[in-house]
Design a protein that fits this description.
This protein has 723 residues and is mainly β. 1% of the residues lie in helices and 36% in strands. The strands form 10 sheets. Strands 40, 41, 42, 43, 44, 45 and 46 form a 7-stranded antiparallel beta sheet that branches. Strands 7, 8, 9, 10, 11 and 12 form a 6-stranded antiparallel beta sheet that branches. Strands 1-33-34-35-36 form a 5-stranded mixed beta sheet, with no helix packed on it. A hairpin with a 2-residue loop joins strand 16 and strand 17.
Length: 723
């Protein structure tokens, strides 16, 4: 079962190899609902020449996925989940950020980009794109409201374009699925674009799936979109349908209501691949994998990993399929039926390109135990170990398996047919807690050779050195970090950045919960940077100005071209990088006053103390009828910017962010001028710039304290800056 956000699934079908079953009926243009994929286009640009990109079978340093034979570009792209089709979770062409400059003095948050819903998909990046009348580096953000955004990657501002694909419907609500869990909370709201899209860097086409409900019908669609204009390509979208025949000659049809398109999309040799699991193991589901022609969106193949059984979701905590140089793809399945003939629950599968026939597989000897205790093997995706021809992966048992893809060995007692298996998540760090592996490891060949990084839940980030002589990992881990995340799920979401193998360039970036368990709750997150050679902590987002806001579960940070892009469930993207000397917060530790506090520990001084991470003791709260918060700067100063950190910036629910308020300034504390009048705010952090003026007092006057009927005003920080 997908215990942190989605589900798992299973079933086997294909044309060639070990798997048997049927081929799915071809999916054509969703003619009757094609218009539903169209939405409002904001400030579309003009198409430019084809963007060169790395081939889909290039190594982990290639920086993307695309069409074979495309030339390299100077700035790497991030066109697919985990950076490349080997799922290295590494960008080895990062020449700006390194151990020497990722420090509290030089590195931090540059700006935020607001969006309309939670962001589950990894942020993608295309450099040097002619869009909106200029050449820009562009990031693409997908939300659970079925909305796509194109933003300038290097500057705050409005989207270059924005498209919503709800059409006549709306995203699925989390309350309408996952009935096996009662109140389903793996998702907290809408279920729209969940998986990470994939971009063809040559044709400038993005492929993504949406999930919408029109009337009472659930309609999952595959789209192809021009990344320059935001417009649909020809033949787009198509409705996702499938069927296979099992050994009893029963036709199994894909059920869009119960299948969860959790696994990220992938592109290789002109084919798009997408996988499905369930919502909390509810209803009669299977693991499905579908293949589509990238040019026509015609279905090429369909695979069900348990056609003669049940379940075995292909979810991988959002990771995409992994590919070898021959174009074969590898996925890991969750709890479900297993017989090694047509049912492949708890397995690592090698599938033929496009036809999706089973070519080989590995299943742990204890697959039955994994099923019995909900220890999905498929809670993470497989990774091609850097600069080797070996595959590595692990699941909820906390064990890693090192596999030779040319001879995967099926299932053998004690797993002696594979190169190595070992407990990679140390149960002694938190005895009795869960020790799952989610999403996948990161791998880099640095000064000391090839290293695999893993941040299992309830354990420290660890580094394992691969020994080329023994073709195994040296044990124990060669390094471990000193920071232990909060008790709970899902562990760390990792990216490694480096300038090739150069010493001092390698950094392991990790997002984890800052407080609480993210299993079935929205909790605050934190970003940390570690020296990849020692795992010494270099930097963490503990300062108010660096807040990640709500943790985006299973979502790796995107590190490219000197910046770090971190998605959030707080409807925003945080952008980090090297910054000039930070501006001085003129309100820091100055005298603050305000309307009556909710409690003695929640007075005005908390809102000018430079911290947001201490919970209720770190905020000002007031239940007054007309709440206000005021800071005395001590003297009349020239000011131009006020930053307000609302409830969610301190980890409280998004719904408690201040909705309507005014920012006012005064020279004498009596006569105030309004410099910002805000209505309908939903953001967790708001920045208010105005014409430079001399003032001694800055006041926040609140009209509507929250998004709901909650009457308590909650402010974690009020900051004031000079021009």
């Amino acid at each position: 079962m997908e215990s942190d956000a989605g589900t798992d699934a299973g079933g086997a079908a294909g044309e060639a190899g070990l798997g048997s079953g049927g081929t799915l009926s071809s999916g054509g243009l969703d003619a009757g609902a094609a218009s539903a994929g169209h939405g409002t286009l904001v400030d579309g640009g003009v198409p430019d020449a084809a963007e060169p990109d790395a081939a889909p079978d290039a190594g982990p340093s290639s920086g993307g996925a695309g069409s074979a034979g495309a030339p390299a570009i100077s700035i790497p792209s991030v066109l697919t989940r985990s950076y490349d089709n080997q799922r290295s979770n590494a960008n080895t062409a990062e020449t700006t950020l390194g151990v020497a400059n990722v420090t509290t003095a030089q590195f931090g948050k540059l700006f935020d980009l607001p969006v309309d819903d939670e962001v589950y998909a990894q942020i993608l990046y295309v450099p040097q794109l002619n869009i909106g009348g200029a050449q820009r580096n562009v990031i693409y953000v997908a939300t659970m409201n079925n909305t796509l955004y194109a933003f300038d990657a290097d500057a705050p501002g409005t989207p270059l374009w924005q498209r919503n694909f709800n059409g006549a419907g709306a995203p699925t609500s989390h309350t309408t699925v996952g009935e096996a869990c009662g109140t389903y909370s793996d998702y907290s709201g809408n279920i729209g674009i969940v998986s990470t899209p994939v971009i063809d860097g040559v044709s400038h086409t993005m492929y993504f799936t949406t999930r919408s409900v029109e009337g009472t019908t659930t309609l999952p669609r595959l789209h192809a979109l021009d990344i320059v204009t935001g417009l649909e390509r020809a033949n787009s979208p198509v409705l996702l349908t499938a069927s296979v025949m099992n050994h009893a000659h029963v036709v199994l049809s894909f059920d869009p209501l119960v299948q969860n398109q959790r696994m990220s999309l992938s592109l290789a040799d002109g084919a798009i691949y997408l996988g499905f699991s369930s919502f909390c193991d509810s209803a009669d589901y299977h693991g499905w994998l579908l293949a589509y022609d990238a040019a026509t969106l015609t279905q090429l193949g369909a695979f069900n990993d348990t056609p003669d059984g049940t379940q075995a979701g292909i979810w991988q905590a959002g990771a995409a399929a992994t590919f070898d140089p021959q174009g074969n793809l590898y996925v890991m399945t969750g709890n479900g039926s297993y017989d090694g003939v047509s049912n492949f629950g708890e397995s690592v599968l090698k599938l033929a390109p496009k036809s999706l026939g089973v070519l080989d597989f590995f299943a742990p000897a204890n697959y039955a135990t994994l099923n019995d205790y909900d220890l999905d093997l498929g809670s993470a995706g497989p990774t091609w170990l850097a600069d080797t021809n070996l595959l590595v992966g692990g699941g909820k048992e906390g064990k890693l398996y090192l596999i030779d893809p040319s001879n995967m060995g099926h299932s053998v007692a004690a797993d002696t047919q594979i190169l190595q298996s070992f407990e990679a998540v140390d149960p002694t760090a938190r005895p009795g807690a869960t020790h799952h592996i989610h999403n996948g490891p990161s791998t880099w060949t640095g000064p000391s050779g090839t290293t695999l990084y893993l941040a299992g839940e309830n354990d420290y980030l660890r580094a394992f050195h691969f020994n080329r002589d023994t073709r195994k990992f040296d044990l124990p881990a060669v390094a471990a970090a000193t920071v232990l995340p909060p008790v709970g799920m899902p562990g760390g979401m990792l990216t490694t950045s480096a300038d090739g193998a150069r010493a001092g360039s390698g950094i392991v970036w990790a997002t984890t919960p800052r407080l609480g368990d993210a299993n079935q709750a929205v909790v605050p997150g934190i970003l940390r940077a570690y020296n990849a050679e020692t795992l010494a902590l270099l930097w963490e987002s503990t300062q108010p100005a660096d807040e990640v806001l709500d943790f985006a579960k299973f979502n790796n940070p995107t590190v490219v071209n000197g910046k770090v892009y971190v998605a959030s469930f707080s409807r925003s993207v945080s952008v980090y990088g090297l910054r000039p000397m930070p501006a001085q917060n003129l309100a820091l530790n100055k005298t603050a006053t305000g309307s009556a506090a909710c409690a003695n520990t929640e007075g005005p001084a908390n809102a000018v103390n430079g911290s947001v991470i201490l919970g209720n003791a770190d905020k000002w709260c007031s239940l007054a009828a007309h709440p206000f918060l005021q800071v005395d700067l001590g003297a009349s100063l020239l000011i131009q910017r006020v930053v307000v950190r609302h409830a969610n910036a301190g980890g409280e629910p998004f719904s408690q962010n201040t909705r309507d308020f005014m920012v006012q300034i005064s020279g004498n504390g009596t006569d105030f001028t309004t410099v910002a009048d805000i209505t309908g705010n939903q953001a967790s952090i708001t920045t208010h710039d105005f014409a430079a003026a001399s003032a001694r007092y800055v006041r926040l006057s609140i009209t509507t304290p929250t998004q709901t009927g909650d009457a308590a005003a909650r402010i974690y920080e009020l900051e004031v800056y000079a021009p």
